[in-house]
## 1
Amino acid sequence: MVDRRLHEFVRTLRGARIRISPVEAEEAMRAAALTGYHPREQFREALAQTLVKAQVDRACFDQCFDDFFQFESMRTDEGEEETDTGALPDTTDLDSGDLSETTANLIAQSPEQLTQSLAEAAAQQDFTAMQVITQQGLFARQLVMNMGMGAVDDDILRLAASPRRRDQNRAEQLRDWRQQVRERASQYVRRQFELHGRAHGRALREHTMRAAPFRELREYHQIQDLVRRMARRLAALHQRRQKRAKRGAMDARRTLVSSLRYNAVPVQLHWRERRKLKSKVYVICDVSGSVREAARFLLQFLYAMNDVLPQVRSFAFAARFDEVTDDFRQYNPDVAVGRILDRVSGSGTDYGYMFESFQQACGREIDRRSTVIILGDARNNDLPAGEEYLAEISRRARQVFWLNPEHPSRWNSGDAIMAKYEPYCRAARRCSSLNDLSRFADYLLRALNNSQ
Amino acid sequence: MKTRIDSVDDVIASFARQGYICDQRTALAVYLAAQLQKPILVEGPPGVGKTELAKSAAAFLEAPLIRLQCYEGLDESRALYEWKYGKQLLYTQLLRDKLSSLLSDAESLEQGMARLGDLGDAFYSDTFLEPRPLLRALRADEPVVLLIDEIDKADQEFEAFLLELLSDFQISIPELGTVRARHRPLVFLTSNDQRELSDALKRRCLHLYIPYPEPDLERRIVAERVPELGDRLREQLVGFIQHLREQDMKKLPAISETLDWARALVLLHADSLEPDLVEQTLTLILKNEQDVTLARGLLPHWFSKQRAL
């Protein structure tokens, strides 16, 4: 039973996004066996030290621990439960003479004892299997049955069928009592659902969020958190790659000098550190209408990776063109987007004008270390395309990438003119969901690292 | 090495005897690590006594402490073992005559090669092996406490290399085969969080975070380490340090700074904190010019509040 409860706890933690391997879960059980459940703080520490390996997760762990083991500790922090305990009908005057043994035992229990029996019965059930809210009734019924309330049902039926008035009164009293117990059971089950079902729901929701089109993402609360975590994971991965790629050619001079110690045998080889070219990234985002959401996530993603992408300059345009690097550095994405829109929005995007402005602003700095990323739907409102500017940028920069939130089949429909711009880009990709974005960021970092 | 640790309280009491005052969770970590035979990863801000913990554990278990200080570029030859190239060369030079006489009666090239082959093994044997901390810990005749200090300063590759050691307590040396620990060492790894450690490493360790001490714990530590300091002054000093830790500073004073300061005040024969005294000795606890300026600004307010109490 102990192991089962701990397994459930581990699953709860996983649901709360703490990564726990099977080995760690096993360690936690061994640690718990060593320390025991009391004192509670020591038990908590033992679990924390074996399960939580990052201090940032500690607060989350504590929250889960308190929620999960609250029943066992008999702590009631919700007011409603306190009143419940008081409202449990008094069964002491109930004559248990001809009742079944199980029933007699159950009704003789004090509220605390009853809570204990409930917890014991609950330990036989696997609440992590509960995934949708409608399963609660079923689990509550099972829980009540596990407590041995079946016997009570039988007794009630028997007493109610009896012709004697006194028996019928007792049946009535028992029904009241049973109702209370059932309510406590469903309360317990509801809390279990909140612990486990929520975790399951969160995993599902994250899965949906990753694949959902940007414009629908606004509805999700945890989206910022998700973007940050995706970006961090990717950044950590690439940090490792960068390190590996650092070692350069053999340093003949140092090797020769050190070999003198060993009779001119080159025992120790020395390597040159490869010099890293600092790559500069320029991001130009269309922030009109539907493209706006994509721009916001792209910028948020790139800035969350600023330890592997130190030099990012960003620009936004709609009717006007402006640099927005500082907005995203200083403010949270919601505020930043608001500020940017105030400055550049207006009717009609003009790509030709944008390229011209960009050329004027940064044309001189663009060199073989520069990567230019353009995000937009290439809908130019039938204005001059200005592809000659892009051609010039592309010639000077190392590479140009184009991200388009629309499906490739629509890249040239209506006033969209991707065909004019595409020849000057190293790659043009669709970017309409977080998954696309993450794939592009991975591709970008590879492209930046390999060429150094 | 002491093989049995009876309880968490046993650890606390023994640590206290050596002058290392720790709280329940630190003692629990040492207890669990010894019982489960798992390494402990100790994290926390600099100066809270992470390295000291390993030293105390070694004294408590009556085991020798072997320390490996990590730094960028640390490699196997510094951490695990190295061949004594110089000695090998010297031996071949000295034995040159012996060698040629040995080879002179060899009738064919193959025969000579075979003889040299036997010799080769002699040159890659224990005589020419220079064991470094990790190998020393594995081959020790008695259980030891191994401290791998500031693992976050080592490269990612080195961290990966440690994995075999930490989970199986064995290590592979191409020329000698697999070296298994004769006695499992108790391993402490410390980190200042300079970079994120890999999940694989964390998975193999227990995790202990040592924060800045609570006022009560800090008072006990000061009382233990600097007993000459008067009660009243100790109270004031800890109060002031705790107050500083609530500020937004570049480098917060840790327990090691508290102790330095306490010792300095004893030397200066101070019996209570005075504004002048604090101003003059502030550089003992704060190592950054901006922090010192910030703290100076706080002084008048803090002292007026103290007087009001």
## 2
Amino acid sequence: MRKAIFVSGKRKYLFCGAQEGMKLLFAVIERVKEEGHPYEIVVIDDIQESLQLSDFLKKQKMGTYLYVALSHTELKRVEKTAEEAGLTEEETQFIGYGEELKRIFCCRCHGINEAKNFEEEILCNQCGLELSVSDHYSVYHNAVLGYVAKL
Amino acid sequence: MKWTDNLENFPYPFKGSTYRYSNNSVPMKKPFCIEVTPDYLEEMKLKRDLLTHHPERCYQSLPHTLTGQWEIVELVMDHLAEQYPNQFSLEKKGRQWRFHNKILEEKHDFTFGDETTLPDEPLAFISKHVQEDLIFMMQRDGDLFLDAGQLCFPANWSLAFNLGMKFKSIHHPIPGFKEEGLDDRILQFLMRLEAGNPWERKNWSLMAGDRLDTSLETFDQWGKLRKQVTKKNAGELVHIRVEVQKLFRLPRTNGILFTIHTHLLSLEKLASNPEWLKQFYEILSELPPHITDYKGISLYKNEVLEYLCEQLESGKVL
Amino acid sequence: MYKEKTIPVMIKDIKKETEFVKRFTLASVDGKPLPKFSGGAHISTYIEDGDLLVRQYSLTSSPDNTKHYQIGVRLSDSSRGGSRYWHQNMKVGDKLHISYPKNHFPLSFKAKHHVFYAAGIGITPFLSMMNELHSRGTSFELHYASKTEEACAFYEFLQEHYPIQCRFYFSNKKKRIHVSSLEEHPIGTHVYFCGPESFITDLTESASQLGYPASSVHMERFTPLQPKEVKAFMVLLKDGTLIEVTKEQTLLETLLNNGIKAPYSCRVGRCGTCELQVLEGEITHYDSFLSEEQKQSQSRILTCVSRAKSAMLSLDI
């Protein structure tokens, strides 16, 4: 699992996450408190709260740094919200927990398949082709490429 | 129809007796982004068929690329009309343009900058008049992204998968490319490409068969031929595939247009030139495994070498 | 040798913007349309005046205008010939060559809001950038410092076209751009600085202290970072020749004067064309092209601006 790392030199720190995720941010929150930096904590425990997050983020000023800790299934959506608000990867850290599914793009039919992280070969659920899972990743599709497994 | 070039027109890609990945780009002598060859009619028919029946495989674009697409329309039409005045003409009256493709006997009147006056998106539209595949890379926030493209004749890659991808990520699957620092150097080279000063390079691979449309999407069909190569049939079955890639900085959007013109030549024809035969044999014998693997040659490299060797020996006898 | 292609142009019009700034209108000699350009782009101008004077100027006209280009030239106190020639010799009808448009100061694509900070003639690149954002309907603001309203180039143009987005700071009215202005920008803002070195340094340092990520801060210097203490050094070439680079010359100039076909293009440490491999010796880098990592590797040099730190450099040329 990725660990939250303290990044110094920011005028304000934001911590967002579910109760469980907050535990993963604990060490960084303590450090920010200790050093006396301004900060805010937003607990997201349901979808409604994550929708309000967008307005909250847009009100922030440059120099703000965001930490998010959520289950992998919820994390992607919040990542998108943060990006749409204008936060870049230099201003954010996203910590996921729980089971993480890999998305696999079928080289033949372009269908997206979900698979467990360790699976190396799968059958495309759309066209039935046997796919070998590669490490070629597309941010745009949020998926790795699945190649023809057998000729 | 055999999708193969004549010897005279073939853009032979080799220099020296070894081959490694490198940025082998050179400034263009004649700065035209397209070339019309004797195969124009046949290739346009194939291309249009592919675009009609497999649009998602052959054409992809992100919505923010329209200005760049128009820039490409202008560049390609200007070059067609300037270089091939008997085959193409372009009249501009302000924003009212008339493009005439005399080979295909098609006339198009449209308003430059207004997509509603064209039958397709601008990039898709102009790509139906040139043999080249057209790739539009946007330079944004300090990196290059493949944001639109028309690709009918790929060398085993997927436009749909690579859409919106950064330059270095696109090249991630090439073994040794990153390790040798080539991805950084070539990216830096491309980012410093200047308008008015286009560059070109040749890229090559071998393939079993003579298909121009070797998309990743259809690899399960054409890839099988790799297993059928023998010393006996290699001359006819195996082809060397050369892409002439041209790089133009587009000044309005600060993007880059890549045009890719794909040529095929059977080993048989290649071997009919004794110098080429000798040089290619040397290069292929020496090629390290990470390159043969990536270029998809490993399965039949030995058969090809045996074939070339035999040709060399028979040459000596003659 | 890499020599860029150029476009022959003619001076169509000269307007006095302020006491020290003139605006020149250029059109192609053959009447063909000029290339369009992107917001923030500039051209190199080539003038034969005994020596060849090569200078870079931002294009201030509209990026879609292919009939003519405009540039704004400030008469520099320390002019080495460039701006003095433009101000004192250039007449309507004169011919010269220009490069195709280039852009080393592009707008951010992902920015939600753009804020420009200009001092003096530093306004010039922002004119085409604002034009582009305005036509795209993207939000922006300009903070523009000048000595007086009279000395403020393009003041009327800006008031007319972007009255809501512009704020002026005239030092004779005791108004100055304060770095605290950076505290007010919302998340997703990109800031752009253009002006004298001290202006850029102050703003850049403040942005960094507030926690702005480096990629949200953009700047264009009029001149490359100047070496504080220039000293002469020796270079050793591959064929064993040893030549001296004097205090007055750049490494590139010395190479060219010695008949060596060294590559170059921009001459201000931006394009990377003049890069050479350094086999031995320590380098002080003054360019804005190589990455920090590349600079630290001490294995390559941009000859147009960078110099030796050690007494000698051995070059792969």
